[in-house]
Amino acid sequence: MEKRDAVPESRTPSPTEKKVNGLELACQRLFDEVPCYISIQDSELRVIEANLKVVEDFGDPNFARCYTLYKGRTEPCPECPVARTFQDGLEHTSEEKIFDRRGLPHDVIVNTRPLRNHTGAIAAVMELFTDITLQKHLERRLHDSLDRFHNLFDVVPCYVSVQDRDFRILEANRQFNESFGGRLGRHCYEIYKKRPNRCPVCPVAQTFEDGRTHSTEEVLIDNNGKQVHVVVHTAPIRDSQGNIAAVMEVSDDITEVRALQDELASLGGLVGGIAHSIKNILEGLRGGIYIANLGFRDNNQQDIRTGWEMVERNVRRLSPMILDMLYCAKERSPRRLPVSLPAVTREVLELYSPRCQQSSIKIEAEVAQDVGMILGEQKDIHALLSNLIGNALDACLSDQDEEKAYCVKVKVFQEAHRAVIQVEDNGAGMDEETRSKLFTRLYSTKGTFGTGLGLLVSHKVATEHGGTISVQSTPGAGSTFTVRFPLATQEERKPS
Amino acid sequence: MTAANTKGKKILVVDDEQDVCAYLARLFQEHGYSVTCAFNGNEASQSLEKEKPDLITLDLSMPDKSGVRFYREIKSDPALSRIPVVFVTGVTGPGGNPKDTERFYRTRRQVPPPDGFIAKPIDQQEILGLVARLVGVP
Fold first, then answer.
1. Cβ contacts (< 8 Å) between B66 and chain A: which residues?
2. Whole-angstrom Cα distance, residue B27 to residue B33?
């Protein structure tokens, strides 16, 4: 850049001139060394002056147009703060991106200011650029981080919420919104547990108290009223002073794990039940052998017969148990052959009539003859009905009310497009708890008699045949089991 | 222990499994005891009204819970509470040994401890020895 303030050397300057010259030099130094770009443009937008920093980074302006020097453009910028200052004489500010001589971009804040001549007219406009590239870069990174944080917060496959000291939900993620509705500002106990007041043991409160993370297992109720088993972890969120401003609650859905655990527990129950039944059968076998051996020793025909009958009886008890176990162990789809429910029912009733007579329980059958065929496996339907009638008899036998005349009613009829079997008894009945556990895996109230397999098999048969099984029961009054099967269509009934 | 020593000693066998009753009855009879069988708690109570035995073997886990009721009933009746009771059951405690099982029954069924405990499958010598000791047969 050329030197503009050369002082004539011919004469000695006066003290005032010296003072003015010194001031000009100082101004020039300031103009050059100030850590920002400063240039002065004329009304044609030519850069008529620029500081050293501009020359260093953008090259000698040499009266180039500012839009060419700073932006490599051939046309003026559409929004030009310099032009506006020329127009209205006011200062203007804007944010621009300019490119240095190496082509590197600089984010800048531009300030323009008019320079007036002695008449007050605007002779030129000074343009001052503050380089905010670093700030812009940090701002973008902050923005990206926030975006990433929000994405993580949203896509994390847990319920995440942030609560204040009043247990109000300040923020929540997408999964929370999907299950509990986006109701910010409400209390966590209302939203998560549908409670009117706070929970007696609260991990959020504990974290507010001691600043540490806490974990508990909870049962939440979602917006559809469904129970959700979760493991909850809480962590403090601190402000810049280190005070706990909020607590984050992350809840992991373990409902399926719980269900599996329950299933495993009932499987354990089943194994226990089976082992117990086998022990009793084994005891019967040992007893039979013992009594038969006494008979052989004493040549006592009565003992031999009694012992041998015990052996036979207990061997007979084993086979249905093993069949039930095998039935439950396999995932299978039954063959789809036409089966007549009235015919199967008559067979099973015949099988049970000696036992009923023996225990003086009356058995009544109402079998409609016009019930349509269903599709399935005859022996499976047989097993289901045997289980239900056997259970009904057991319910009567275990009731022991001398006033009662025990009766089991078996009904087979057609209802709309369904064939229905109903087995009703006036035995012991069940309470709500027993009833609710009935068709879940393996549940027995029968102690030594039951393994819990029977109803499980019945349930499996019903569902595998596209049917349903339900129960109504009153303790002390009896139970009614109803099984509904879809009827075979005309086409399906034809033998293939 | 001989059949002569046990003569006149009466045992009440309470078990819902008829074959287990038949087995125990025949085993005890073979060793000189006289035996009455009951298939549930109510039958057992009725039997006590007729005749007081020297010992009771009881399956506590019968389906109608009448075993527990019956056991509580005799333990709270001063006239009956001194009759020794032996639990005979297939349901055992976690360790399977008699101590575990006894604790298991006391806590699960809320009943006082029995005088003896026999786990199924029954060991003949074990049950005969225990019964003989409890009824005071040398």
1. 400
2. 9
